Amino acid sequence: MDRVIIFAIIIIIAYLVQILLGLRQLKHFNQVYSVMRKKGRVAIGRRSGKIKSGTIVMLAIDEKGLVLDAQKMQGVTVAAKFQQMPQFINQDIHYLDSYNSLVRKENRLLQIAIEDARDLFVRTEAGSYQEVTKYASAFDIDFHVKNLVSRFKIQKNKF
């Protein structure tokens, strides 16, 4: 067989393995979410990683705002699994911000995910939650055109 065909077959097999492992990770996510949902409301925070590892935090919250269960998933590959974070149990979610000593002990990506979960929970609790995209896609032409127009308006007003 030709080397190109063998290389193409290897790429296709690797892609299929990645899909299967991704589905397995999604199933694990859903299982952990279901268990936490039975305990109370669940606040989910994330810090997606392009090159660095991505991080997801799930916090089960009772009616008073105390954390009943806390788990994190952090990693670059689809082999990452959820791990317990017992230090956050019985903490008030309203105080899990960048000034909290427990949050500050964690790595930066985990800090961002915890703060994202807290912010999402607080906005939902206040009834002012709206889905906000944090990063614009390179293919979002409408966003880029509006951004360019506003830049020209700013520069025009300077002169």
Automatic annotation (TrEMBL):
Alphabetical UniProt keywords: Membrane, Transmembrane, Transmembrane helix
TM region(s), chain numbering: 6-23
Superkingdom of origin organism: Bacteria
Protein name (Swiss-Prot/TrEMBL): Transcriptional regulator
